C-alpha cells in the first residue's frame, strides 16, 4: 500500500460524491415553486439518484446509506418517520439484486426499469401512509408524482452521469 | 459471495461483515417500520429531533429558495404585463367598492368602541404578529406542511395560528431555534373547529391532502350554500373566533361539503404567525390535534 494520507483523503472525498449529490437532491426537492398543485406531485429526485448509484456504484450506495438518506428526507418533509427510509432501502435492495441485468442494458431499458421501480415505490409509499392514517388514501397523487419522476429521469440521469465521470472515474 | 474490498477499508472480521451485509436489508426494513411506530407513539421527541434537523438545514434551504422565488416572480410578472389593462380596470372598480366598505368599517369600529366603553367589556388581548418567509414545501403526495424562517428566538410557539392574505392557512406544529413548521389546513391530520358565518352552524374542518378541505360533523339537514364563508369558531381554545378560513365551493349529498381555503396555499410566500395570547394556547399533543 503506497497510498499517502492525502490520496486516501481525496479518495474518501470522491467516494462521498453519491451521498452528497443525493443529499443535495433531497434539499432541491423541498424548493417551493409557486405553481398550483405542484408540491403534491413534485418529482422524487432522491429515488432517481439512489437508483442510479445502486446500479453504477453499489459499493457507495449501500443499504445503510439509502436508509440514512430516506431518514433525512422523512425528517425534512415532516411526514411520519421511516416511510421514505423504507422506500429507499427496498429500492436499493430490489435494484442491487437485478444489477447485472441493468448494467448490460440500454438507456431505454434503464428508463423502463426505473418506471417499474417507481411504481413499486409509489405503491409502498401509499400503503405506508394509508396504514399510518388508518384509512384508504387516494392513490392518484402518488401516481402522478411517479409519472413526473419518470419523466424527469433522463434529464437527471444525464446530470448524474456527469457527476459520476467528474468525481469517480479517475 | 466474496465481499468487495475497497482499498482503504480496514479489514474487519470478515465473517461478521458478511453476516451483517446479508441481514442488513431485513434489519433496515425492520428499523424503518419500528421508526413509524415510534413516530406514532413518541411524537413529541420525534418532533424535537425533526426541529433540530430542520434547523440545521434551514440556512441552505433559505439560500436555495431565493433564486427559485426570483425566477418564478420574473415569469409571473411577464404574464401579468400582458393583462395589465383589464386588471387595472377591475382593480379600480374594486377599489371604489372597498372605499365604501372602509367607511362602513370605520363607522362600525367607532360605534363598537363607544359601546364597549358603555359596557365595560374587557378588551381583546393584544395580538403579536411574527412575519416569516416560507423556505420549503415538501414535495410529497401525502404531507402538506411548510417550513418558515422564524423560530423560538423570534417568539414562535407551538399551536400558533399561521395567517396569509385574508385568512388562516394552518398552525405551527414544530418549533426549532430559527425555523418552524406549519401544518396546512389541507393536510390529512389537520382539524380546525369552524362555524359557517351565515347560519352559525358549527363543524370541523378536516383536510384530506387535496386542495380543498371538507367539513365534518354537519347535521344532515343543515342549510349550506355554495359561497358561504367559513370562519374559526374558537372552540378548543387554539384559535380566536372569527378568523376567515375559506369559502364553501360545493355542497352535495355524496361529495359532502368542500371548503376552499381563502389563501392560495401553493403560492404563499410570506405568512404571519400570530400569538393571540389566548388562555389555554399551551399546546398539548392530544390525539385530536395530530
Describe this structure in words.
The complex is a heterodimer of chains A (170) and B (290). Chain A has helices spanning 5-15, 17-28, 45-56, 63-77, 83-97, 99-104, 107-133, 140-168. Chain A has one domain. Chain A contains eight helices and no strands. Chain B has two domains: 44-119, no CATH class; 128-275, Thrombin, subunit H. Chain B is 36% helix and 24% strand. Chain B is built from three helices and twelve strands; from the N terminus they run αααββββββββββββ. Chain B has helices spanning 14-41, 43-82, 84-119; strands spanning 128-136, 145-148, 161-164, 167-175, 180-184, 191-196, 202-206, 213-216, 229-232, 244-252, 256-261, 270-275. A six-stranded antiparallel barrel of chain B has the order 1-2-5-4-3-12. In chain B, strands 6-7-8-11-10-9 form a six-stranded antiparallel barrel. The radius of gyration of chain B is 25 Å and the shape is globular. The two termini of chain B are 47 Å apart. In chain B, 31% of the residues are buried. At the A-B interface, α1, α4, α5, α7 and α8 of A face α1, α2, β1 and β2 of B.
Present the secondary structure layout.
The complex is a heterodimer of chains A (170) and B (290).
Chain A: H1 5-15, H2 17-28, H3 45-56, H4 63-77, H5 83-97, H6 99-104, H7 107-133, H8 140-168
Helix pairs in contact in A: 2-3, 2-4, 3-5, 3-8, 4-5, 5-7, 7-8
Chain B: H1 14-41, H2 43-82, H3 84-119, E1 128-136, E2 145-148, E3 161-164, E4 167-175, E5 180-184, E6 191-196, E7 202-206, E8 213-216, E9 229-232, E10 244-252, E11 256-261, E12 270-275
Antiparallel strand pairs in B: 1-2, 1-12, 2-5, 3-4, 3-12, 4-5, 6-7, 6-9, 7-8, 8-11, 9-10, 10-11
Helix pairs in contact in B: 1-2
Amino acid at each position: 500500500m503506497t497510498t499517502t494520507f492525502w490520496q486516501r483523503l481525496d479518495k474518501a472525498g470522491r467516494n462521498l460524491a453519491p451521498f452528497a449529490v443525493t443529499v443535495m437532491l433531497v434539499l432541491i426537492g423541498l424548493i417551493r415553486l409557486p405553481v398550483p398543485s405542484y408540491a403534491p406531485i413534485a418529482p422524487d429526485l432522491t429515488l432517481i439518484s439512489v437508483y442510479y448509484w445502486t446500479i453504477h456504484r453499489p459499493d457507495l450506495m449501500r443499504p445503510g446509506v439509502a436508509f440514512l438518506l430516506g431518514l433525512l428526507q422523512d425528517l425534512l418533509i415532516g411526514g411520519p418517520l421511516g416511510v421514505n427510509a423504507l422506500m429507499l432501502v427496498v429500492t436499493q435492495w430490489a435494484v442491487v439484486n437485478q444489477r447485472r441485468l441493468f448494467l448490460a442494458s440500454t438507456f431505454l431499458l434503464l428508463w423502463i426499469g426505473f418506471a417499474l421501480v417507481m411504481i413499486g415505490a409509489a405503491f409502498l409509499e401509499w400503503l405506508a401512509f394509508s396504514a399510518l392514517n388508518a384509512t384508504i388514501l387516494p392513490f392518484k397523487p402518488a401516481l402522478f408524482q411517479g409519472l413526473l419522476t419518470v419523466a424527469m429521469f433522463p434529464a437527471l440521469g444525464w446530470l448524474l452521469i456527469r457527476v459520476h465521470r467528474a468525481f469517480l472515474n479517475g | 459471495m466474496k465481499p468487495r474490498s475497497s482499498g482503504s477499508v480496514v479489514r474487519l472480521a470478515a465473517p461478521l461483515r458478511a453476516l451483517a451485509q446479508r441481514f442488513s436489508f431485513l434489519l433496515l426494513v425492520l428499523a424503518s417500520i419500528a421508526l413509524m411506530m415510534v413516530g406514532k407513539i413518541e411524537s413529541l421527541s420525534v418532533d424535537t429531533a425533526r426541529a433540530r434537523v430542520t434547523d440545521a438545514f434551514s440556512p441552505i434551504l433559505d439560500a436555495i429558495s431565493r433564486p427559485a422565488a426570483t425566477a418564478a416572480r420574473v415569469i409571473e410578472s411577464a404574464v401579468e404585463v400582458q393583462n395589465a389593462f383589464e386588471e387595472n380596470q377591475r382593480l379600480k372598480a374594486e377599489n371604489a367598492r372597498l372605499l365604501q366598505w372602509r367607511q362602513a368599517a370605520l363607522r362600525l369600529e367607532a360605534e363598537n368602541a363607544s359601546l364597549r366603553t358603555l359596557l365595560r367589556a374587557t378588551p381583546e388581548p393584544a395580538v403579536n404578529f411574527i412575519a416569516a418567509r416560507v423556505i420549503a414545501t415538501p414535495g410529497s403526495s401525502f404531507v402538506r406542511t411548510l417550513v418558515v424562517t422564524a423560530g423560538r428566538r423570534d417568539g414562535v410557539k407551538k399551536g400558533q395560528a399561521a395567517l396569509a392574505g385574508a385568512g388562516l392557512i394552518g398552525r405551527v406544529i414544530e418549533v426549532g431555534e430559527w425555523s418552524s413548521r406549519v401544518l396546512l389546513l389541507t393536510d390529512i391530520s389537520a382539524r380546525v373547529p369552524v362555524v359557517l358565518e351565515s347560519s352559525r352552524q358549527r363543524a370541523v374542518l378536516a383536510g384530506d391532502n387535496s386542495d380543498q378541505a371538507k367539513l365534518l360533523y354537519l347535521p344532515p339537514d343543515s342549510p349550506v350554500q355554495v359561497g358561504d364563508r367559513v370562519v374559526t369558531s374558537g372552540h378548543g381554545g387554539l384559535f380566536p373566533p372569527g378568523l376567515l378560513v375559506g369559502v364553501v365551493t360545493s355542497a352535495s349529498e355524496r361529495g359532502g361539503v368542500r371548503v376552499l381555503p381563502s389563501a392560495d396555499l401553493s403560492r404563499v410566500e410570506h405568512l404571519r404567525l400570530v400569538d393571540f395570547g389566548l388562555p389555554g394556547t399551551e399546546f398539548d399533543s392530544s390525539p385530536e390535534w395530530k
